[in-house]
Amino acid sequence: MAKQLRTQILGLVFLVSSVWLFVTLFLFDIEDEINKTRLRKMYPNVVNFVNVIKKHEPFGNSRDKVTKSQNNRNSSNIKHQEDFKRKEILQKWREELLLKERKKEFVKDIKIKTDFSRTREQQIKQSANIEGGRLNNSDNLSQRIPVRPLAGRATIKAAAPSVGRVSERERLRHLERVAPLDAPGEFGRPVVIKMADLSPEQQKLHDLLFKRNSFDQYASDMISLHRRLPDIRSDSCKQKTYSNNLPSTSIIICFHNEAWSVLLRTVHSILNRSPPDLIHEILLVDDFSDLDFLKTELDEYFAENGMGKVRVIRTARREGLIRARLLGYEKATGKILTFLDSHIECFQGWLEPLLARIAENHTRVVAPVIDMISDRTLACGGAEIAALGTFDIANMGYKWLTINKTEKAKHEPSEPWRTPTIAGGLFAISRAYFTDMGTYDDGMDIWGGENLEISFRVWMCGGSLEIHPCSHVAHIFRSVSPYKWGKSFGEILRKNSVRTAEVWMDEYKHIYYERLNYNLGDYGDISYRKDLRRRLRCKSFGWYLQTLLPSMEIPEKNLYSGEVRNMESGLCLDTMGTTSGNRVQAIPCHHLGGNQFFRFTVSGLIERDSACLTNQKGALYYVLCKNNATKWEYTEQSEIRVLHSKSCLSLNHNTLSVLPCVGLVSQKWAWSRKIEENAPVQ
Fold this sequence. Notes:
8-stranded antiparallel beta sheet, 682 residues, 21 helices, alpha+beta, glycosyltransferase, Trefoil (Acidic Fibroblast Growth Factor, subunit A), Spore Coat Polysaccharide Biosynthesis Protein SpsA, Chain A
């Protein structure tokens, strides 16, 4: 009886256990299905997260279609790291999505709305905010290099949290996570701030941050520090392979009061999209920033995230870009130096092409294709190489030279282009070669003009400059600089440009000096830079122009330049504006150049900015030189005569006219400068 009872009890226990196990498994299945349903509802386009992660790998350490020898480099370690990262990302995304549903985190006010454009023209119109800035106060890059707008545009109706008493890192800690695929700014999509949807306090904050940075920091503070960018390389670039023994590089980035999100996105884009063994170190040179979060808080961020290759070096006073970069150069220990700006993002495969070219020939200086990050929306657009660097010889400004379509069609898409000049913000150079070539001119101030100086020096002294189409780095171009230097940018640029012209441009420097009306200012001691040119046995500037820019229009040689002053009245010729067709008048001399600056060329033209002084029925007009401009001669009697005639430029009661030459003082004129002697006429 007892045995039968024990058997019944055991049977009952087994039955209860089975039921409990079945119910538990059933409930687990229901919970898992509920979670999957939530994920699908929140991200209907994401079917398989594991596949998505593999497709959009944000860490970028693997290389596309590389050879077997490359895959063998630490292959087991790399595979382990990638598997771990994928699992970690998948878990983070899962937790993040569930938290969004349950706790309604900060993104509750952000509405992402993707609007796919049907045509390229519509996309360009939608991306009208990608305006870009200037390089050295020269041409707008957006006018020279076309931007390819990306798929959609994110419309942000309510912006990131307001700045409170918390630290900058705490305020923006959410940006440290890898963001969902459709988060603001992912894959380079623009983030549009709708000001009408912001509160008065948020609008005030938005404007304050924009004024501080000259770009939309409010938009930047919504974009992950690890944002994904599309792989914009050509197929031939993706298939290109590189040696396993490339030298590593020291990356030097100078900054002053840079926005937290932009600076860290710069650093993470370098680390996430570069093979670790090619990054020797990243040196951040803090040029005397006064924002608190760029001090201890920044150091702690790198330490806590195990970013041992990143070092912050701080200047004792405001130095400016040139001398701050020289400080970074002194501290760097890598064989190759890569100079970058503090508001950039690197694309996949950006580093290897630069290092490979220098490894083959240490006298090469190699720059990436510079793509654009909008200062308004932080949209990051990629473009094929469309232009090379050149310059305007009359004002010493950097310009872009559009590549001829025929020439481009003949060029192998993955091969570098020789470029007469580089923009200067982004390039790689051998450390030993940089030293031998005289580094930067430390007599220059702040920034501006140093890119032309190093471009002339490299080419004239035996090196070469290249832009590599397989290397892409995007840059925020600001329309104005937010920084104050104690003197105008024009003064700084003039000093730096005059130093360049005096050392490297030989007789061609007068073309630039004429534009300055020979007001060269104090440009400091250049004797040691001239000694450097002699030591390096550099070629002439004429060789540089003929070799690199044979089609550049060089202004005709001048005999005289400057003001044209009447010896009787003391009045000066003035075009009364820049419009062709104006009647020239005589007014008091102001000694500022401008409308009173003229050039007397060897062919007999009196010109200014492609327009010439022309005799029309006895009156003097300012017309385009190509429209039958009058040719003149300047006589020993200081007369300005119509060539091969006896008619002279005359001034009678403030009225200019062309009359028979009779030797009156009112027909005598003085030029400010005789170019042949490089000295004033009087």
